[in-house]
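User: Hello, can you help with two protein structures?

Assistant: Certainly.
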Amino acid sequence: MALDLDKMSEAELKQLQKDVEKALVTFETRKKAEARKALEALAEEHGFSLKDLVDGKASKGGSGKGTGVPKYANPADPSQTWTGKGRQPVWYKEAIEAGADPSSLEI
C-alpha cells in the first residue's frame, strides 16, 4: 500500500499518525500474547506451568520487578516489612531517628 503523503491534508496526516500509533500498540500487545502462549506451551511440555517457573508466582506484568524478600520488620507491627531497597518506610525512619540500630530491626 503506497501512500502519497504529499497529497494528504494536515487532518489526514494527523489521523494517519494516530492510526499508526494505535497499530503499533496493538502489535506489541499481540506479540506479547503470542510469546506468553509459546512460553506456556513450552513449560507445559516439561511438566510445569509458566507460573511455577516464574519465581513460583504469577507475573503481574509491568516492569518485571518483584517485591523482594523483607529484611527489616517494624517491632511495633511485624506485619510491616521492608526489603532494605527503595524508599525507607516511615516506621523505619522514625525508629532510626529515635536511636534504634538498623540491625535491631532486621528479621
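That covers the first. Now for the second protein you mentioned:
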Amino acid sequence: MTRRPLARRMAAIAVSTAALTALAAPAEAATTAPAAAVDYATWQQDCGRVMSEALPYIQSRAAAGAGEKQAIVLDVDNTTLETDFGFQFPQPANRPVLKVAQYAQDHGVALIFVTARPGLLHWPTSYNLEHDGYRVTDLRVRGLIDLFKDVAAYKTAQRADIERQGYTIIANIGNSASDLSGGHAERTFKLPDYDGQLS
C-alpha cells in the first residue's frame, strides 16, 4: 500500500478541520448573514488594540502572583488562530494574541484552550497551536454530549472545572460573548467578531 505524501495528508487534515469547525459553530451564527466582508488588516489592528490593553494587565498580574497557580483561558477560532483568514493547515496564529500568550507562558502562566470544536479535532488543533508557538497546558474540546449543549454554558463549566484544579484564571480571551460570559475569570478581553461575521 502506498503512503500519500505528507503535503497531501496535511491538506486533507486542513479541509477536514475547516469543515468540522464550521459544523461546530454555534447555530445562531449560521442564521445571521454577514453585513460585509471583514478586512484582515482592520481585524489585526482591532485585535492589537484589545491585546495592548491585555498585556500590561497580564504583566502586572503575573508579577504579583508568586505562589499562585495562574492560567489564561483562550478561545481558538479567530482568537488564537486566524480561522477565517488562514486557509491552510496549520492555520497561522493571530499575532497580537500570540504575543501576549508568549509573554504569559514565559512568566509561568498556564495557557488553557477552551474551544467549541468537537473532540475529533483535538489532535490537529493541539498540533496547530504548538506549531504556531503556543505552549498548550490543556486543550478542552467538546465531547459528543457537549455538542448538544449551549456553547456558553459548556465554556463556563470548563472554566469552573479549571478553577477546581487549583488554577486562578487571571484572564479569559475570546471573540464571542459565549467565550466570555458566565464568570470564572478575573478579567475578560473580547476580540472583535463584527456582529457574528467571525465565528
